[in-house]
Specification:
The complex is a heterodimer of chains A (445) and B (774).
Chain A: H1 36-53, E1 58-63, E2 69-74, E3 81-86, E4 90-95, E5 100-106, E6 112-117, E7 123-128, E8 132-137, E9 151-154, E10 161-164, E11 170-174, E12 178-182, E13 188-192, E14 199-204, E15 211-216, E16 220-225, E17 230-237, E18 241-246, E19 253-258, E20 262-267, E21 276-279, E22 285-290, E23 296-301, E24 306-310, E25 318-320, E26 328-333, E27 339-344, E28 348-353, H2 365-380, H3 385-392, H4 398-423, E29 440-444
Antiparallel strand pairs in A: 1-28, 2-3, 3-4, 4-5, 6-7, 7-8, 8-9, 10-11, 11-12, 12-13, 14-15, 15-16, 16-17, 17-29, 18-19, 19-20, 20-21, 22-23, 23-24, 24-25, 26-27, 27-28
Chain B: H1 2-21, H2 32-52, H3 87-96, H4 99-114, H5 124-143, H6 147-155, E1 159-161, H7 173-178, H8 185-196, H9 208-216, H10 219-248, H11 252-276, H12 278-297, H13 306-315, H14 319-336, H15 340-350, H16 362-372, H17 376-393, H18 399-409, H19 415-441, H20 444-448, H21 453-482, H22 487-492, H23 495-509, H24 513-525, H25 533-546, H26 549-560, H27 563-568, H28 581-601, H29 607-622, E2 627-628, H30 646-652, E3 653-654, H31 678-681, H32 695-703, H33 713-719, E4 724-726, H34 749-755, H35 762-773
Parallel strand pairs in B: 1-4
Antiparallel strand pairs in B: 2-3
Helix pairs in contact in B: 1-2, 5-35, 11-12, 13-14, 14-17, 16-17, 17-19, 18-19, 21-23
The chains are: A alpha+beta (445), B mainly alpha (774).
Biased composition (Basic and acidic residues) (chain B): 382-392, 402-438
Subcellular location (chain B): Nucleus, Nucleolus
Region (Disordered) (chain B): 22-42, 338-506, 520-594, 735-774
């Protein structure tokens, strides 16, 4: 008589080592796994809720300055090093991993207006209210040595900003005009002006390095070509632009932080219409910096908050604020795309996660897979009302919240007025101006 | 004070005078007279100045008192001021000169006029503006090279940062070797070997041998070789493509023809070879013989395979199957046939040539020959061979007799045996015919036939074909009339002849309608193989005549639900008894007007009917459905064509309860969707999100799950790849031209600046000016 027995090959269920995962035989028959959409929807909902639960972006506050932090600079070679200049002329170098100040320099009398590092990371430049440009070594002085700048250039006017070329020993300062300096010379090799006004900031294009952008207090943004030593074009906006920042992945895109609470992303070849108007701030935007991936940027505002905007969207995806953070003057996105630093009026530099709910540290592969899956689920169901509501919900300080309400009312009133005007005027007599173009006064060739 | 000043001025004046007058004194013959006059004049002046000291006529215009032909170039006297200048006076000197010169002067004048004056240099601001514009255009051009990359990065499914790949640095071997010496015996041995073969250990990367070989081949030679190789490759690819194309051709007939052609060619080649190189031909023969032996050994074409058996079963009914079987047998025959003929011919070459004169065809020969042979097996096979050869020659002629045979015998003989019988019959008939033909035609071709059996085969094939053709022609007419008499006559005829005339005859008969009907009936009862498209068309034509009633009825029904009727129906909710009749009339009028308007507006399409239809449909859809729980075959017989009894069906039918009345029951012009669930709506997307253009797209994306519950691990990973991947702790630098394959600009910005190219060519400027004007 034949006896039938169950027999299994141990290869199919025995692990090779103890550390391996248990093999789980799977049957992918769709009838065995019904309700895929509702199940995934619930998963997405949970993922969204968990994201909000874990959203704790604030990491550290670096204190030590004795006056408001006026400018920040990243080290080009070291992720942990950050430089900051304060309103009392002090420059501090910080180590982010230790969250400590490594070095303090009394660089200027009065404000440190601008600070920038050399592309190789061996030295940095500062400009101050005392009409000087100073070059400093990145490493501190040896024992017994005096803290002294490598070079000091005494100018005729106050410099309000500085930026270093991305490849060559050149830097640009701004004040009454945009000057381009060779590091070795005490006179600018080229100075460019277009009209007479104080220029508040100048920035080199990181990709096409001969391009410069500047913004002046007569409400305009001017682009320069360094090689041809000439300005290229000027666009005049409704209000003053505080600073601009070039996209590090798209050579012709830059974003301007404006006093009218908005940020404008321009294609520099077509200045008459901004590519996107980013509006969520409720006060003047003071600084802007792109993420190194070029997909997002962070802006610092006078309304005591910083916001993160995707480049292609006009609404911000994130807003950071704390009770103690005052007007944020400067902001930087670290070059590993993970953190954001902001310096504010109340003498502190704050460190934030760029992705609020991200887990720091090394992830196991399963954690990573789960994270990716959750991310994809959130993306897939982002248009569903519940999920949208939860993912968009942010707590805001009362002042910002009420201002947002107020501005909403104002905006609505303005819109209504415009519609009424259009309605009650002779057809054709009132032209409709698109929202994007509304803020552009003129483009000067 | 004044006096002293006056004296000074006088002195100064006198000096000036001298200076001024110097040119006047230029002529060399300075006479005393003039000196005197000079003195006089000075004196005069002096007087004048003194007189002017009193302060009266201080500003007296210097004037000449003496008359002189010479007019000083410094002082123009106004003596002749009373006279008027006339143009004629001016032209006088021109008139006096010749007329020719006048023309030249005119010409010169014209030339001067035509020449334009040099333009004023542009305003400084204008120049700057032009500079800026040029620079801007240049830079935007430079920047637009980034467009494709930016677009690509924006659309990329995944971007991995940092962008630049860390290249694993390859250290050249000599660098590695320089700091390394052989220690172990094995290493030393290897090194010795290397040295012995002059392998380069340091800088030069080629061995002396390699260098020599490099030198050996000149450039031209190499080029030629390369060209040759290229040509060969091109040819090869061409032939390959052709072979592939030919392989794809599905036509069996084509392949048959090709095969035959090939056989012919091979034969020819063999003949040639025999003439040229007998040894090689023998070799070839041996090969053929070997192939034959192999074939005899194998069961390949013996009608014993799976396919052959299946075909044998089918052969009863299917003409093609029969043909295929016979073909296979014929092939076997062909392959196993001994090539004794060739050897015979050789013998003949050696000895008797009389056999050539014998004009009897092979078939006959062989049949006659075979009885002499002692082996009855061989005898049988031989006859069969011939039969099969014949069958191979024209297989189309066979089928009908086969059918006949099969239908008559209907025994449970094995198919192969049937085949044999069949073939025998055919053979007999064919040989008879052949003989008669031979006697008729007595073609010389037959006499010239070589003994080679295969070549004869080809020829005979040709002959058979021509005969077939003839026969067809002959038989077509009589058949047309004769086929109708019945099957008995047909049976005697070959199949091919039956087939075509049948078709012909059918197409003729169709012309009369009654016949067609009959034919249709017949066909229904028989088989419908021969129903041709033409027939069908006619059938279709006829159909509408036969069934004119059905559509008419439909039309009537449609007319019943007419626009007028619909419009006249009133909503019951509108009517109320309380409203006075006059008002109602007014309403009626208004309504009529409105309806008229609607009717005019939608003259083409019947909107109201559509709407009503839609509403009815939605009502139907929303009604709860009855549930039928009858199980066929439960408690009674079940199976094909059996239905559960009505009693049972009634018993197990669960009637759905009448739902609540529809909300739009009393609203004739409204459809209210009752499916909408408020609780579910909170979880549903209300507006189609941006990138999607149709709700079905969006639904599809939602419906495809991405979790590992529904997908394999690989698919899951692919579906959940993040859009941006960054390495922790790595600095992401701005994109560089080198990262995306562009050449970075070789000149540094600094060097360009120092050259200061702030100059524009004149043409450029002009062009720009034009642009700015536009």
């Amino acid at each position: 008589m034949k006896v039938k027995m169950l027999s299994r090959n141990p290869d199919t269920y025995v692990r090779e080592t103890k550390l391996d995962l248990q093999k789980v035989p799977r049957n992918y028959d769709p009838t065995l796994h019904p309700f895929e959409v509702p199940r995934e929807y619930v998963r997405a909902l949970n993922a969204t809720k968990l994201e909000r639960v874990f959203a704790k972006p604030f990491l550290a506050s670096l204190d030590g300055h004795r006056d408001g932090v006026n400018c920040l600079a990243k080290h080009p070679k070291s992720l942990a090093t950050v430089l900051s200049g304060a309103c009392d002329g002090e420059v501090k170098i910080w180590n982010l991993s230790q969250r400590k100040c490594i070095r303090t320099i009394q660089a200027h009398e009065g404000f440190v207006r601008g600070i920038c590092t050399r592309f190789c990371g061996t030295s940095f430049f500062t400009v101050g209210d005392d009409k000087t440009v100073k070059q400093w070594k990145m490493d501190g002085p040896g024992y017994g040595e005096e803290e002294e700048p490598l070079h000091t250039i005494l100018g005729k006017t106050v410099y309000t900003g500085i930026d270093h070329h991305w490849k060559e020993p050149l830097f640009a300062t701004c004040g009454q005009q945009v000057d381009i300096w060779d590091e070795q010379k005490t006179n600018p090799i080229c100075s460019m002006t277009w009209g007479f006004d104080s220029i508040s900031s100048v920035k080199f294009n990181p990709i096409e390095t001969f391009l410069l952008g500047s913004c002046a207090s007569d409400r305009n943004i001017v682009l320069y070509d360094m090689r041809q030593a000439t300005p290229l074009k000027k666009v005049i906006l409704d209000m003053r632009t505080n600073t601009i920042c070039w996209n590090p992945m798209e050579a012709f895109i830059f974003t301007a932080a404006n006093e009218d609470y908005n940020l404008y992303t321009f294609d520099m070849r077509a200045l008459d219409t901004p590519v996107m108007v980013h509006m969520d701030h409720v006060s003047a935007v003071l600084d802007v910096d792109y993420s190194p991936t070029g997909k997002e940027f962070v802006s610092a505002s006078f309304d005591k908050s910083i916001r993160i905007f995707p480049v292609a969207r006009s609404q911000s995806r994130e807003v950071y604020h704390t009770k103690r953070m005052q007007h944020v003057i400067c902001v930087k996105w670290t070059s590993d795309n993970k953190y954001i630093m902001c310096g504010s009026d109340e003498m502190n530099i704050r460190l934030w996660k760029a992705n609020a709910s991200e887990k720091l540290g090394v992830l196991t592969s399963r954690e990573k897979a789960a994270k990716d899956y959750n991310q994809k689920l959130k993306e897939k169901f982002q248009h569903y009302p519940h999920i949208k509501r939860i993912s968009r919900h942010r707590h805001l300080p009362k002042s910002i919240y009420s201002q947002i309400q107020e501005q909403r009312i104002m905006k609505e009133a303005r819109r209504r007025k415009e519609v009424n005007r259009l309605k009650h005027s002779k057809p054709g007599s009132v032209s409709i101006v698109s929202k994007k173009k509304k803020h552009i006064v003129a483009v000067v060739k | 004070m004044t006096a002293s000043r006056a004296a000074k001025s006088v002195l100064a004046l006198s000096q000036q005078e001298e200076l001024v007058d110097l040119p006047e004194d230029c002529p060399l013959n300075v006479s005393e007279d003039e000196e005197d006059s000079d003195g006089e004049r000075k004196h005069q002046k002096l007087l004048e100045t003194i007189s002017s000291l009193d302060g009266k006529n201080r500003h007296k215009v210097a004037e000449r008192s003496e008359a002189s032909l010479k007019v000083s170039e410094f002082n123009v006297s106004a003596e002749g001021s009373g006279e008027k200048l006339v143009l004629a006076d001016l032209l006088e000197p021109v008139k006096t000169s010749s007329s020719l010169s006048l023309a030249t002067v005119k010409k010169q004048l014209n030339r001067v006029k035509s020449k334009k004056t040099v333009e004023l240099p542009l305003h400084k601001e204008e120049i700057e503006r032009i500079h800026r514009e040029v620079a801007f255009n240049k830079t935007s051009q430079v920047l637009s090279k980034w467009d494709p990359i930016v677009l690509k990065n924006r659309q990329a499914k995944q971007l991995v940062f940092p962008l630049e790949k860390e290249q694993s640095a390859f250290a050249p071997i000599e660098h590695v070797l320089s700091g390394w010496t052989a220690r172990t015996p094995l290493e030393q041995e290897v090194f010795n070997l290397l040295h012995k073969n002059k392998q380069p250990v340091t800088d030069p990367l080629l061995t002396p041998m390699e260098k020599a070989s490099l030198k050996a081949m000149s450039l031209e030679e190499a080029k030629m070789r390369r060209a040759e190789l290229q040509r060969a490759r091109a040819l090869q690819s061409y032939y390959e493509a052709r072979a592939r194309r030919e392989k794809k051709i599905k036509s069996k007939r084509y392949h048959k023809i090709v095969k035959k052609e090939k056989a012919k060619r091979a034969l020819k080649a063999f003949e040639q070879l025999r003439k040229v190189n007998p040894a090689a031909a023998l070799e070839e023969l041996k090969k053929i013989e070997k192939a034959r032996m192999m074939e005899r050994m194998s069961l390949k074409h013996q009608n014993s395979g799976k396919w052959a058996k299946s075909k044998a079963i089918m052969a009863k009914y299917d003409l093609e199957a029969r043909q295929a079987m016979q073909e296979q047998l014929a092939k076997n025959k062909e392959l196993t046939q001994k090539l004794q003929v060739a050897s015979e011919s050789e013998e003949e070459e050696r000895g008797a040539e009389e056999t050539e004169e014998l004009l009897v065809p092979d078939v006959v020969n062989e049949v006659q020959m075979n009885p002499d042979g002692p082996n009855p097996w061989m005898l049988r096979s031989c006859t069969r061979d011939i039969k099969e050869a014949e069958a191979h020659e024209d297989p189309e002629e066979l089928p009908d007799p086969v059918a006949h045979e099969v239908s008559e015998s209907e025994g449970d003989e094995r198919p192969v045996a049937e085949e044999e019988i069949l073939l025998k019959e055919v053979e007999e008939r064919r040989s008879l015919r052949r003989r008669s033909e031979l006697s008729q035609d007595a073609e010389p071709v037959g006499s010239q036939e070589t003994k080679d059996s295969s070549s004869q085969e080809v020829l005979s094939e040709l002959r058979a074909l021509s005969q077939k053709f003839k026969k067809n022609h002959q038989s077509r007419k009589p058949k047309a009339s004769s086929v109708s008499t019945g099957h008995q006559v047909q049976r005697e005829e070959p199949a091919l002849e039956e087939e075509e005339p049948l078709l012909l005859q059918r197409s003729k008969r169709v012309q009369t309608v009654e016949e067609l009907e009959e034919l249709e009936k017949e066909e229904c009862s028989q088989n419908q193989e021969f129903l041709r498209p033409g027939l069908k068309g006619q059938q279709l034509e006829r159909n509408p005549n036969n069934l004119p009633n059905a559509p008419k009825e439909k039309k009537k029904k449609e007319q019943m639900i007419d626009l007028q009727n619909l419009l006249s129906t009133k909503s019951p909710s509108v009517k109320s008894l309380a409203v006075p009749t006059t008002l109602e009339e007014m309403d009626d009028e208004e309504e009529r007007d409105q309806k008229q308007m609607i009717k005019e507006a939608f003259a083409g399409d019947d909107v109201i009917r559509d709407f009503l239809k839609e509403k009815r449909e939605s009502m139907e859809a929303s009604k709860p459905k009855d549930v039928d729980l009858t199980l066929p075959g439960w408690g009674e017989w079940g199976g094909m064509g059996l239905k559960p009894s009505t009693k049972k069906r009634r018993r197990f039918l669960i009637k759905a309860p009448e739902g609540p009345p529809r909300k739009d029951k009393n609203l004739p012009n409204v459809i209210i969707n009752e499916k909408r669930n408020i609780h579910a709506a909170a979880h549903q997307v209300q507006v189609l999100p941006y990138p999607f253009t149709h709700h079905s797209q969006f639904e599809r994306t939602i419906q495809t799950p991405i979790g590992s519950t529904w997908n394999t691990q690989r698919a899951f990973q692919k579906l959940t790849t993040p859009k941006v991947v960054t390495k922790p702790g790595h600095i992401i630098k701005p994109i560089k031209p080198e990262d995306v394959g562009y050449r970075s600009s070789s000149r540094s910005d600094l060097s360009v600046m120092q050259r200061n190219p702030k100059r524009l060519s004149a043409s450029h400027k002009k062009q720009l000016k034009k642009n700015s004007v536009d």
